[in-house]
């Protein structure tokens, strides 16, 4: 029994060493272990986005995916992204829970990820109040399948920016994929495969195969 335990301990050490090396190359990153997106659950997409955006995410790419996201959205800033924090479903007492929040040194970005659920009463207005109370430069982004407008009873004339999965998120994911070109061929193949699976899962919940108008 002692010999078995010794072998298990040795194997565990080798596994930990291998994981450290894989994490450095980004090969450990698996969207499905983070989001269970293969089940096409709507709430997994916020988890996926937040994980990719986080400099501490298991993708092993540091700030690069966040940098690409902000660039894709045309968001200009002078902050060091090494100081950035990304939180999923952050609760603000008295205001509600925001799906994805990007904390930069001088900026706050609040992202409401609206798939099929209806807007809450004064929901974006409350998030607007969060931004105003933050003491930072802030933006409120409203992410939907096609970039549709929020209901008037939600925004109550508060300023917000519309984003879409069809355009903005897919564009960003393509840029993330291209970022992997500096990695060795095996890693690129893995990223490409997972990217295709992700797009396929998005199609399954109707994000891409929808009429263009309306």
Structure in words:
The structure is a single chain. This protein is an alpha/beta fold and 214 residues long. It has one domain (2-204). The protein contains eight helices and five strands, in the order ααααβββαβαβαα. The chain has helices spanning 2-25, 31-35, 44-53, 64-72, 123-133, 152-155, 165-179, 185-204; strands spanning 85-92, 96-103, 107-113, 137-144, 161-164. Strands 1-2-3-4-5 form a five-stranded mixed β-sheet. α5 links the parallel β3 and β4. α4 (64-72) packs antiparallel against α7 (165-179) and α7 (165-179) runs antiparallel to α8.
Q: Which structural class fits the helix and strand makeup?
A: alpha/beta
How is the largest sheet built, in terms of strand order?
1-2-3-4-5
Mean pLDDT: 75
Strand content: 15-25%
Termini Cα gap: 67 Å
Radius of gyration, in Å, reads 19 Å
Question: Roughly how much helix do the residues carry, as a percent range?
Answer: 40-55%
Order of helices and strands: HHHHEEEHEHEHH
Q: Detail the poorly predicted runs.
A: 34-42, 205-214
* SS element count, helices: 8
* Biggest sheet descriptor: 5 strands, mixed
Shape: globular
Query: How many strand elements?
Result: 5
Number of domains: 1
Kindly summarize this structure in a few lines:
The chain has helices at residues 2-25, 31-35, 44-53, 64-72, 123-133, 152-155, 165-179, 185-204, and strands at 85-92, 96-103, 107-113, 137-144, 161-164. The chain has 214 residues and is α/β, with parallel strands linked by helices. The protein has a 5-stranded mixed sheet.
